[in-house]
């Protein structure tokens, strides 16, 4: 008889969508599965900006604790929220096939402000990566902190005197709340592993690892690992404006990465195209190129700004 697999998840609509997706895939294999909702620190404090909280693991820590305590068998996360170093004893069991990767601008009235340089628009986001890239393109715009789950942020945009807010396309589309008044930001480079869902479990739990193996999408797992290698090599996290996107095109690995200053005035960018057979070290190699271009100076300035 197969064991009951307990899936730990945050309680937001998007997190539950992700967990139910994993649940359905496991049930299709014949496993008995139940969801175990758990609150995270990031869901409780919706006021403090993420960079002030010390965001590394803020959306995953509570689930990690439940996993280590044996209260759940697997945890399901938005992969971009997961620290590049997992806690001792916890391993990546599967990465699902990636969804939409890009960021999305949801606007209230129109997008005229994008073509009107003298207009000082008010733009909301909780991500300093999005803020830095936006200010690089629109240095006069005013940025506002926006926290909470997807539905909370959409409502706050409606309530506040803002022109627009930035979201992950995947988050809105997965729960069918993408407004008509939205436009994908093709020019904005996403967070490492954006649009991907990861399943983690205990290293010693061979039965659960075996159950999760068919869920693993090899191309997504490779691309997100390269992106997270880039992030880790630059000693970055959610509080550093680091962007990365890897994709496989015609048996080649295409990689784009960037590091921005907090105010967007400085940006270092790298692009690489390599055969798949030579892709393993692309993220680390790209990070070294950023460092050689002066990336350490930007990282030091970011660290000093947070002290």
TrEMBL record:
Residues 222-291 form the Porphobilinogen deaminase C-terminal domain. It is an enzyme of class 2 (transferase). Signal peptide: none annotated. GO terms for biological process: heme biosynthetic process. GO terms for molecular function: hydroxymethylbilane synthase activity. It catalyses: 4 porphobilinogen + H2O = hydroxymethylbilane + 4 NH4(+). The keyword Transferase applies. Residues 5-209 form the Porphobilinogen deaminase N-terminal domain. Its EC number is 2.5.1.61. InterPro entries: HemC (IPR000860), Porphobilin_deaminase_cofac_BS (IPR022419), Porphobilin_deaminase_N (IPR022417), Porphobilinogen_deaminase_C (IPR022418), Porphobilinogen_deaminase_C_sf (IPR036803). Coiled coil: none annotated. Belongs to the HMBS family. Tetrapolymerization of the monopyrrole PBG into the hydroxymethylbilane pre-uroporphyrinogen in several discrete steps. This is Hydroxymethylbilane synthase. It comes from Chitinophaga skermanii. The lineage of its organism: Bacteria, Pseudomonadati, Bacteroidota, Chitinophagia, Chitinophagales.
